[in-house]
Amino acid sequence: MKGKAHLIAGLLFVLTLLYDAYLWGGLARSPILGPIVTQGAQREVSLAGTYLPLGRMAVDAAGLGAGATQFAQARFASLEPALLANPAAAMDTLSSNLPFGVRMGYYGAPCMLLLFVILLWRRPRSLHVMQRR
Fold first, then answer.
1. How far apart are the first and last CA of the chain?
2. What is the value of pTM for the model shown?
3. Calpha distance 104→13 (Å, rounded)
4. Which pLDDT score, from 0 to 100, does residue 42 have?
5. pLDDT tens for residues 9-43?
6. Is residue 23 exposed (0-12), middle (13-18) or buried (19+ Cβ within 10 Å)?
7. Rounded distance, CA 30 to CA 68, Å?
C-alpha cells in the first residue's frame, strides 16, 4: 500500500479540484452572488481568485451551468445576506464563514497536491542490479 499512496493522494487532489471547479464555477455564474464574489476575488489574491475563472470555464465547457449554479447557491445560502450587505468585504466574509464542506474543498486541493508531490518523491523505487548473462 505504501507504494501506491501517491496514486491515492493524486486521485484525491483531482477529485477535490473538480469539486472546487464545480462549486466555484457555479458561484461565478450565480446572478446574485457571482458579480460580488468575482469582483472581490479580483481585488484580492486568494484561492478563490483561481477557482472562480477555472470553475467558470470548466462548468461552461461541460454544459453544467444550471446545476452548478443551484449547487453553489445552496452551499452559500447562509452567507448571501452578509455578502449583499457589504459587497466590498465579500472575500473576507467568505473566507471567515465558509461552511465546513466548502472549507475542506477550498483548502483540500492545495494540501492534496502538496501531499501528492511529497509522496511521489518519497515513493519506493525498484533497485536494478546488473546481472551476468
1. 34
2. 0.85
3. 12
4. 84
5. 999 999 999 999 999 999 999 998 888 898 888 88
6. buried
7. 9
User: Residue 61: CB partners within 8 Å, gap ≥ 6?
Assistant: none
Listed residue (53, 48, 59, 55) closest to 103, CA to CA = 48
Residue holding cell 461565478? 28
Q: Give CA–CA dist 21/78, Å, rounded.
A: 20
Q: Which DSSP string do the residues of 62-128 spell out, in sequence order?
A: HT-HHHHHHHHHHHTGGGHHHHHH-GGGHHHHHHHH--HHHHHHHHHHHHHHHHHHHHHHH---PPP
Report the run of H or E that residue 28 belongs to, with start and end. helix 5-29
Q: What pLDDT, on a 0 to 100 scale, did the predictor assign at position 91?
A: 85
Contact 132, 43 (CB under 8 A): no
Report CA-CA distances (Å) from 113 to 17, 43, 62, 107, 119. Answer: 10, 25, 24, 10, 10
As a whole number of angstroms, the distance between CA 37 and CA 68 comes to 16
